[in-house]
Design a protein that fits this description.
By secondary structure, the chain is α/β, with parallel strands linked by helices. 43% of the residues lie in helices and 12% in strands. Helix 15 crosses helix 16. The protein binds pyridoxal-5'-phosphate. Pyridoxal-5'-phosphate (PLP) binds next to helix 6.
Length: 476
């Protein structure tokens, strides 16, 4: 019934060949899936098979049923949302994690899973030039979460406990706690407030005007905090964003930290750099992290722009005791001598779920394969392509830049109505030759060109620009 070693070897080789062929031919595939809602399900049998089927049949159905319903995130012509790039070493790291089948909830359930993770997070502190207080040999430390949303939630929960003297976890939330983030911050902040039982109405969305490049205006933050305190509310958490999803805007972390110190001392300051944090591998791009030493926690997603496939979010805190005290519950069945000794890290106490995957493996593989210099040159390449694309937009009278370009994201419009921009967007995406998404800035539809896929080169960006220009001309 189970595969023999020989069968596993044969099928495994077939799968690796399949992935290699897929990646070799991905450029020619329409980027956006072209199926209608329900089309994939309609081709699947209503019930599970009563008896096992040959693996070759499963692979055939992967090709015939599943592949048409795939949007090709790894295409070099994928310019939508944000990069979610991958790489050979990462895919193999993921495969090996599955092969080892480790569940790393405790140090004892696989010491290497925990220790490699701690070590990778320390490597990344140096690689990104993060503050030393995030290193594991201080009071702080890092952990891999599934996503930036989870990192935000964990930071917010720790902040809630600190602000309530560790009572909220026990008695429920009674204090009138309020949090703050930019109006352009990710919706994950709102979701965290909902999950934490604090209510989305208690999240203040702070002005981030076009005149300031859509970054949070610290003076509005200070006003909001002061007004809330005057009304008897308790400001407990501020979220700053480095690389906002819509625009790539970088909130001024240093100034925000100064406001927090002045107006809401003791409140927790978290920095969400999900998409853009990777850029700090390049020393000349570390300006995005100015002021980080003044913060309580920080996270970024190697699964966006660092060639590590989804999921992998790296999250650091300055005070790991606060995080662990917030999330720790120790039933008898999880007790062991290593935990009792206090000499090890049990990452189950640093996250919401108990169980955890061996994500550090793919991170290790990617860092070792490319090396810091290799990663730097890839990131610089993407940033340069975005710079060139923004220059083309700025030089063409039919287009306008809609926000300052900071790194690898260019926000732009065809000059004209929202309806015109929508038609251009729909037609570009229907062409199958590229995939672009939009946002709204100051109420106006804005196209976003996000450059960061593993194999995107200048010729892909050139072809995209040619197509965008032609399409705008046709639709005008
Ligand atoms: N924060 C920012 C700035 C993002 O761009 C995103 C993704 O778009 C997120 C958070 C959410 O990321 P995740 O899927 O890792 O929760």
């Amino acid at each position: 019934m189970h595969w023999t070693g020989a069968e596993f070897r044969a099928h495994g080789r077939a799968v690796i060949d399949w992935i290699a062929d897929y990646l070799d031919t991905i450029e020619g595939r329409p980027v956006l899936a072209r199926v209608q809602p329900g089309e994939v399900r309609a081709r699947l049998p209503a019930l599970a098979p009563a008896h096992g089927e040959p693996f070759a049949d499963v692979l055939r159905d992967l090709e015939e049923i599943i592949l048409p319903g795939i949007t090709h995130w790894q295409s070099p012509n994928f310019f939508a949302y944000f990069p979610s790039n991958s790489s050979g070493p990462s895919i193999l790291g993921e495969l090996l994690a599955a092969g080892l089948g480790v569940q790393g909830m405790l140090w004892a359930t696989s010491p290497a899973c925990t220790e490699l993770e701690t070590h990778m997070l320390d490597w990344l502190v140096e690689m990104l030039g993060l503050p030393a207080k995030f290193r594991s040999d201080t009071a702080g430390g890092g952990v891999i979460q599934d996503t930036a949303s989870s990192a935000i939630l964990c930071a917010l929960l720790a902040a809630r406990e600190l602000a309530t003297g560790w009572k909220a976890n026990v008695e429920g939330v009674k204090s009138p706690l309020v949090a703050y983030a930019s109006v352009h911050a990710h919706s994950a902040f709102e979701k965290a407030m909902m999950i934490a039982g604090l209510g989305r109405a208690h999240l203040r969305l702070i002005e981030a005007p076009a005149s300031g490049g859509f970054a949070m205006d610290p003076s509005w933050l200070e006003r909001a905090i002061t007004a809330d305190r005057a009304a008897g509310l308790v400001p407990f958490f501020v979220g700053a964003t480095v690389g906002a999803t819509s625009t790539g805007a970088v909130d001024p972390v240093r100034e925000i930290a100064a406001v927090v110190r002045r107006a809401a001392p003791g409140a927790w300051l978290h920095v969400d750099a999900a998409m853009s944090g990777t850029a700090a591998i390049c020393p000349e791009l570390r300006f995005i992290h100015d002021g980080l030493e003044e913060t309580d926690s920080y996270s970024f997603n190697p699964h966006k722009w660092m060639f590590v496939n989804f999921d992998c979010d790296c999250f650091w805190v300055a005070d790991r005791a606060a995080l662990i005290r917030t999330l720790s519950v120790l039933p008898e069945y999880l007790r062991d001598a290593a935990t009792d000794s206090g000499a090890v890290i049990d990452y189950r106490d640093w996250q919401v779920p108990l169980g955890r995957r061996f994500r550090a493996l793919k991170l290790w593989f990617v860092i070792r394969h490319y090396g810091v210099e290799g990663l730097r040159s890839l990131i610089r390449g993407h940033v340069e392509l975005a710079r060139v694309f923004a220059d083309w937009v700025a030089a063409d009278d039919r287009f306008e830049l809609a926000a300052p370009r900071v790194l690898n994201l260019v926000c732009f419009r065809v000059r004209g109505s929202d309806a015109l921009n929508q038609r251009v967007l729909d037609r570009l995406n229907a062409s199958g030759r590229m995939y672009l998404t939009h946002t709204k800035l100051d109420g106006r539809l804005t196209l976003r060109m996000s450059i960061g896929q593993t194999t995107t080169q200048r010729r892909h960006v050139e072809a995209a620009w040619t197509l965008i220009r032609q399409t705008a001309e046709d639709e005008a």
